[in-house]
Amino acid sequence: MSEIGLLRAAAVTLFIAVGGFFLAVGTIGLLRLPDVYNRLHATSKATTLGAASMFLAGFLYYGPGGPGLTSLVGIVFLFLTAPTGGHLISRAAHRMGVPFFGDAAWPFEDDSE
Amino acid sequence: MSDPAFLEIAVNAGLVLSSGLALLAGYRVVRGPTTPDRVVALDTIGTNVVAIAVLFALASGFGPFILVSLVLAIIGFISTVAVADYVTQGDIIE
Question: Which of A5, A63, A85, B67 has its Cβ near the most Cβ atoms within 10 Å?
Answer without folding.
Answer: A85
